[in-house]
Amino acid sequence: MLINTELFKYFEKDKEDNFVNVDIDIFEKLDSWFKNGEIKNSKHKAFTFAYYWLISYFWKYGKYGQHLLTIKDIKKILGYSPIDKRLDYIVKENGLLDSKGYTELSRDFPVYSFFSEQGLELIMTTDLDPSYKRGATNKYSGNYSVKKPLKMINRTYKEGLMTSNDDSFKLYIYEFTRIVLTDGLGVDGFYVYAWLKWKSKMICKSKFPVYYSELIEATNFSDKKLRKILQLLEKVNLIKIHNKTLFNKENQNFSTKNSYELLYKPRNWGIEYSEVI
What we know:
Strand 6 and strand 7 form a beta hairpin. The chain folds into two domains: 152 residues, no CATH class; 88 residues. The strands form five sheets. Strands 9-11-10 form a three-stranded antiparallel beta sheet. A two-stranded antiparallel ribbon has the order 1-8. The protein has eleven helices and eleven strands. The protein is α+β, with helices and mostly antiparallel strands. 36% of the residues lie in helices and 18% in strands.
């Protein structure tokens, strides 16, 4: 597998331990939308999760100050053609995520973020000096807008995920790039890995048992596809699978219980993204 080095340009200056807090009820919400037919298939469910994580990351870390990212760029990062319209019902204005209160269109967005004694602070386009905005590049003028990740800002009866760890689990930029930008995993692999991290959070263990049938039901992926994703996640050193009877070709027993161990611990950015795995 070759890691997609072209798309790594969006993250090459980022610290490995940059992260986004993910609401623990996200999988319940996605499953509900999927079962109601509001999300059309399992791949679109995985895309929805990865898309929301990514725009939350862009917002939290002021990435729009480095790149004028568009939905075409985001589709490309997530492994889709930039002109693929099959996903637009999820991300468009008044689409699925807007209607569910997860996103809204905004022309005011972070262009820079930093940590102070008060915590994370954002510099918004409205904070910029007017003379800067009228500069030669005129970078933030016109109709340029982004999707605002509303759960990062505020949650019902809770603080937003940007400032609160309550009822959430962390997904790091290292994990995202390692999975989504690696051939053979993509957003589907990110969804499976995120679900395993959610499971770890729910039972407060980094090594934990999961019935294979539970994974099938949670992801809605085929047996063949799920087995391949799990094997690749182990190959890129993000998980360790204990009790590998599941992967015997003769074994078709979905009641098998494997133990999964999460291997990633935040450390200094040191990965070579040109490496062949």
